[in-house]
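Researcher: Structure for this, please.
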Amino acid sequence: ATLMTDHQHTALNTGFLTHPRPDGGAPRGEGFELRTDAHGVVRAGGGLLLTTQLRARAVAHHTDLPECAEQLSIAQQHHATFSHLARDHLAQESGDQDDVAQALSDQHAAIRGTGGNPSANQFPELSEPYLVLHSPAGIASSTPQSTHLTSGEHLALTSGGHTSLAIG
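Model: Predicted structure, token format:
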């Protein structure tokens, strides 16, 4: 199915994607494509979950994110544990990393949410307007220009394996 306008070649294509041709469509893939030659915006005032986690046949609520929430919980626990260990071994001042661990705990609680009433179409996830990116296979970001990350409070990096920086 296609919903489109000729203005800036804007279209939503769903299902079996083809490129129109006089002798029949040329296959272009399956799924969906939302495209435009102009600007595009995705705006969600209540929060946005962008994930590649499969929900076969849409069996759960659309903001259901237990896999992501579990991984965030483990990461927050790592920060709290290492904060306590560093303080106990006099490697840092008391409270230096406690603020980060607490901020991550608060963030995780807001992303996972509590309560809710599914029979009244109220679900707990995303109780604050977070942008949540999640993928079981990984996330890649690439540009031939610059990348800028900024955070008004804390920047917490957690890896279950190695963390590598290559500069040059």
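Researcher: Any notable elements?
Model: The chain has two domains: 1-38, 47-136. The chain has a mean pLDDT of 90.
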